[in-house]
Amino acid sequence: MKTSKYLEERIESFRKIIDFFKNGSNEQKIIFLAQIDFWDWEMENLIFSISNFRDRAKAWRGTDILKMLEDNRIKLKDSDFNRLRIDRRWQEFYGREYGEPASISAPIADMNDVVNEWNKFLEIVNKKIISEKEIKLYNLKVDDITKYKKNRLEI
Fold first, then answer.
1. What is the pLDDT of residue 93?
2. Would you put residue 74 in left (φ > 0), alpha (ψ -120 to 50) or beta?
3. Taking phi first (over 0 means left), then psi (-120 to 50 degrees means alpha), and beta for anything else, what does residue 99 get?
4. Domain layout of the chain by residue ranges
5. Residue 29 CB: number of other CB atoms within 10 A?
6. What is the pLDDT of residues 69-126, one digit of tens each?
7. Could you tell me where the DSSP H helices lie in the chain?
8. Distances from the Cα of 4 to the Cαs of 8, 57, 103, 104, 108, in angstroms?
């Protein structure tokens, strides 16, 4: 089964962000901490995209797209609607070998790797940066950053 190229690219981009901060100087790690709410939001957004992919992927299969459009009260021009309806019903009737789109899944294993990297990076930052010396030096107000840790997704 193929995985979503779009989600693969987003995961890889986020992995590069983690690597940038992880391999950077202490100052870069402190900048990460200053921006942690933003990066946490980005991580949550990526997890959400992976988690609800199955529902969104229905648009690529059979007549599900017609129901999704109807549920969202989106009306196509009659010619587009009829063409789409015929194409989708034809694909359902004749099956994949005659043009039905291949099943595509979310890259959950890759996402779980990034979740592990994220959590390890938070541990590194917590141990290496959040020390009394750094707190005083940079005048930081620090909460427990382990609250930003993420759970792995179920496969």
1. 42
2. beta
3. left
4. 1-54+105-155, 62-100
5. 20
6. 767 676 666 655 655 555 555 455 445 554 545 577 899 999 999 999 999 999 988 8
7. 5-22, 26-34, 36-51, 53-57, 64-71, 78-94, 108-128, 132-137
8. 6, 9, 10, 6, 10
